[in-house]
Amino acid sequence: MTVSPELGTARTASPELLRSVFRRHAAGVAVITAAGPGPVGFTATSLTSVAAEPPLLSFGIGTGASSWPVVSEAAHIGVHLLGEHQEELAATFARSGADRFGPATSWRTGPEGVPLLDGVVAWLVCRVVARIPAGDHRIVLAEPVVGDPAGPGRPLLYHQGAFNALRD
Question: For the chain, which residues score pLDDT lower than 50?
Answer without folding.
Answer: none
